[in-house]
């Protein structure tokens, strides 16, 4: 015969857990011996292991009580159902592990390969990594929202950054990042950016500058994402608006 401590040890639980299972009516309390101690037999070990296994699988204790009282066929069916749920959870956790692995890879998180290649081209142009990260973070909701348009958008971006004027736009933008809001150089940089944009729009059309076609509310959401990541961008966009251009995700000529 076993003491409560020995029972707990054999079943791989704590004494406190045994007492809890007694209180919940899952494990019958044995009679006490002449010294006042509970004594358990081998059957209690088996029963306690069954309780521990079911509870450890996430089965609510009220349901554990039902299963312990069930017939063999009902118990087997319930265990098969629990096993399938656990398999489903394992598959979901495996998917989460794969997403975490992609997160460790950086740009590969939730982004198609062609977008990753576009970001690499920006780096090759010498665009500041902070700008690249903002661009990356903007692509994530874009690709999730309209995956069917990603190839079209990337092709357009590829065409744009091959244009020296657009490359100049990105490089000028990079120079603005470390400037405080009251830095006079920000105004000069805004002049340069506005000049780049105006020249491209005059020669190629306004759609050449803004071709995403996303709705204004979604564009504002992505603008907020960019401004939170790179605060100087907000002041720069304010200065650009004074020079006839508005927005970040959707650049528009306002006059």
Provide the low-confidence segments as ranges.
none
Rounded radius of gyration (Å): 32 Å
User: Structural class, from secondary structure content?
Assistant: mainly alpha
Number of helices: 13
Q: What is the domain tally?
A: 2
What string gives the helices and strands in order?
Answer: HHHHHHHHHHHHHEE
Going across the major beta sheet, what is the strand order? 1-2
Structural notes for this entry:
The protein is mainly α and 255 residues long. It folds into two domains: 99 residues, Multidrug-efflux Transporter Regulator, Chain: A, Domain 2, CATH 1.10.1660; 148 residues, no CATH class. Helices cover 69% and strands 2% of the residues. Strands 1-2 form a two-stranded antiparallel sheet. It is elongated and about 100 Å long. The mean pLDDT is 81.
What is the topological layout?
Layout: H1 4-11, H2 15-23, H3 42-56, H4 61-69, H5 72-104, H6 113-124, H7 129-145, H8 150-161, H9 164-175, H10 184-204, H11 206-209, H12 216-229, H13 232-242, E1 245-246, E2 252-253
Brief sketch in words of this structure:
69% of the residues lie in helices and 2% in strands. By secondary structure, the chain is mainly alpha-helical.
Keywords:
single chain; 255 residues; mainly alpha; Multidrug-efflux Transporter Regulator, Chain: A, Domain 2; 2 domains; two-stranded antiparallel ribbon; 13 helices; 2% strand
């Amino acid at each position: 015969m076993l003491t409560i401590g020995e029972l707990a040890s054999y079943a791989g639980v704590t004494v406190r857990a045994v007492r809890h299972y007694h209180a919940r009516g899952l494990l019958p309390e044995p009679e006490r011996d002449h010294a006042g101690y509970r004594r358990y037999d081998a059957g209690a070990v088996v029963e306690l292991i069954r309780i521990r296994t079911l509870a450890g699988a996430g089965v609510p204790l009220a349901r554990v009580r039902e299963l312990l009282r069930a017939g063999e066929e009902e118990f087997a069916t319930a265990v098969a159902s629990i096993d399938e749920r656990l398999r489903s959870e394992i598959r979901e956790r495996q998917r989460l592990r794969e997403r975490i692995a992609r997160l460790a890879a950086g740009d590969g998180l939730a982004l198609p390969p062609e977008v990753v290649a576009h970001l690499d081209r920006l780096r090759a142009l010498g665009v500041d990594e902070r700008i690249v990260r903002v661009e990356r973070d903007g692509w994530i909701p874009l690709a999730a929202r309209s995956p069917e348009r990603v190839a079209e958008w990337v092709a357009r971006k590829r065409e744009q950054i091959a244009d020296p004027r657009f490359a100049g736009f990105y490089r000028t933008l990079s120079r603005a990042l470390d400037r405080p809001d009251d830095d006079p150089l920000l105004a000069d940089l805004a002049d340069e950016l506005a000049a780049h944009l105006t020249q491209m729009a005059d020669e190629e059309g306004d759609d050449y500058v803004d071709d995403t076609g996303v709705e204004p509310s979604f564009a504002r959401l992505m603008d907020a994402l960019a401004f939170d990541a790179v605060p100087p961008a907000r002041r720069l966009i304010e200065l650009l608006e004074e020079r006839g251009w508005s927005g970040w995700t959707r650049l528009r000529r306002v006059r």
